[in-house]
Structure formats: structure tokens, C-alpha cells
Amino acid sequence: MKISSQQNPAGARQRVVKKSINRPKAASKARTVPSSAASTEFAQQCVAVEFHSFPKLPTELRLKVWRYHMEVPRILEMNLGRHGSWIDGYTWARVTRKGRQPPAILHTCREARKEAKEVYELRALDVSTQESSEIIQRKVYYNPQADIVFFNNPQQLSLIKSLFKPGLLQPIARLALKVDQACLFEVYDKLSILHGSTGPQPYEGCPGLNEVYLVVDSSITPAGFGLGELTPDTGMRPAAADGLTKPQKSTHKRFVKAIQEIEGTYELGTPITGGAFGLEVLFFQWISKNQPTHKFISFTPYRCADEMRCDAVTFENTDSKLFNKFVHANNPVRKSIEEKTGCSIIFRNHNRASKFSESQKFEEIGFKGSESSIAQAKATVMELIRKGNAGKVVKIPNM
Fold first, then answer.
1. What residue spans define the domains of the chain?
2. Each residue of 265-306: pLDDT tens digit?
């Protein structure tokens, strides 16, 4: 007896499958790579419409996300001790209260904590120039591959030297110093603490130091700058100005000159002189063979993670009327630029700007977004200012 497909559903399924297998294949279309002109349209057509739950992602991807998050540097600000003077300096410094807070990744989940403990180490960054009972070593979580130790006061020079005593700690790779009012001799003193000396009292400087960030004050800097109130999530960007006051601007020029002298000598230990302002200053090159890089930066209130970036541009001889209108968030021109480019525009911190009357002679505009959106927004704003003859772009050396 012949069994029909209705009486044998399994057989029907087999015949359907066989038929689908034997079906001739349609001619495959050649895949074409979109051109640069059509890349934006192609990307819009490929927008993901399904959200994958993070816990359900493959383990390898989740671990990469945790590692990528820890590559973003944290700013660990050092706070001065209670006792000290301009002449004798301060005897100790320690990480600020906000800097001692554990990274958020340590209490995100068990998997994230396990990865973080392989990267972060508990380290006592509190330093003292003498055996003092005032300071109690408090350990903080420190990522030697990314985190930056920030000294915000020129009176901390001797403490910096104590932080890099041979055998005291593992090398600190990244250090930030505030560019504040300083004469030529003080600038050389700051840098000589870092690069060492072969003079009457020789010392090795800061072995293991790879990057030196010179922090320039800015009208869009976080409000806690210089007050020991910066959070570790404070971001940084290339400096777009050379300071808020005339002394800061002069100090910036002296740092540029001193760094150029360091980088301009070739033989180790060769003395060089800086004759600025009629002063002959004996200076020495970096003692270690591994000279760090020097960069002028400014802090931002936003941590630049993932594809997020921060940048700024400064204008001098500005038209205050135009900028005062542009500052307001409801300004139609500003809103149009932000909506079109997807980049947020940041203007001066009024509390900081009011402290420095000299800073009102120029205007600094910040940008937050992806690299492409920042470039587009910056070009639009600069063209708007140029057409309105409302200011001139300030260009500063950034080493």
C-alpha cells in the first residue's frame, strides 16, 4: 500500500527538504564596497535594529569591554598637608578624598571585578619628605598603564622627588603638573626635578616616567580645578589656550622654551644655557636615556571614553555681543549646529571667568562628540566667527 504525504508527514517534510536542496541556486549578486561618498548612506542602511543583552554576549567580548574601559586614564590629584610655607614647602601630600574612591568597575559585577583586580593595584601614593607621624599611608587603586598622578601646586616639588625615590615605589609612568605663575628659575626647577641633575647634589630624577602633562588653566575647566576637588573621572584634551592670566601665559612660554632646550640637546649630561630675560641659567638634559614626552593639556568635566572626544578652540579680540548670544543653550544657531553635527558645544564657566578679568579678552569654545562630529562643528563655528569678523583664532605650540 502506498502511503500518501498526508499520512506520513515526516515523508512530506523529507520531500520538501529534498526539493529545496535540489532547487537551482539564484545567480549571486556581486558584493560591492561602498565608496567614500556613499559610506554615510550605506552606514545608515546598516543600522542595528536589535539590542543584544550584554550578559548574553560571548565572554571574549565582555572581557574586551572591561579592558577597554580601564584604558581610559583616571586623574589622581595630590593634596598638600596642613602645615607648610612658601619658603620651606610642605612636608607631605596625599591623594584627595575623591581620588581615593575605588573605580566603579570594581563594584559593577563579579566578572568585571575579577578583570579589574588584574589591572588595578593597591598602592600608597601618599608621600612625605621626612619621617612624620602626621601622614598615614592610605592605599588607592592605581592603574600603572593609564592613571595620571596630578600635582596642582608648585610647592610640591620636593614631594615629587620623594615619590620617585629608588626602591620606594614602582615607577609612575604618567605625571601632570599645573602651569601656574612661575619665574624662569622656578620653571627650570620643576623640570630639573623630573629629569634629574649631575650638579653638586646629583640625583636620577624620575626613573620610569614616560609622559609629562603640563596642565593649562582654561575658562571651560571643571570648577574644582586647583581646589583638590577634581574627580578621577575628569577628562583631558589638548590645550587650546596658554592660560587665563598674563603670568600664566608668560609661564607657558617659559615652559615651551625650557622643553625645547631639553629636546634640543643630544649628548647626555651636556649643560645648556637659557638666556631669556638676560638670565644665564645652567641647565642639564634628561639624565635617563628614556626621555618622556611633554604635552600641554587642559582638563574637561567629561571623561573621554569609547568614541567620545573633547577639544576646544580659542578666539582673541572677540565680539562680546555675538559670543554672549551664542553662549545661551537656546540660541537657534548653536542648537542648529549641535543637531546637525551631533556635537555638544561647551562655553565658559562663568564662576571661573569672573575670577580672571583678563580672560574676558578672549573666548574659548569646547566641543564634545566623536572625532568627525567635532571636526564638523569646529569648522562651522570657525567659519561663523570669521564671516562675522568676531574674533581671531589663537594658535599655541603643543609640543
1. 54-300, 309-393
2. 434 444 444 444 434 444 555 666 667 888 888 888 777 766
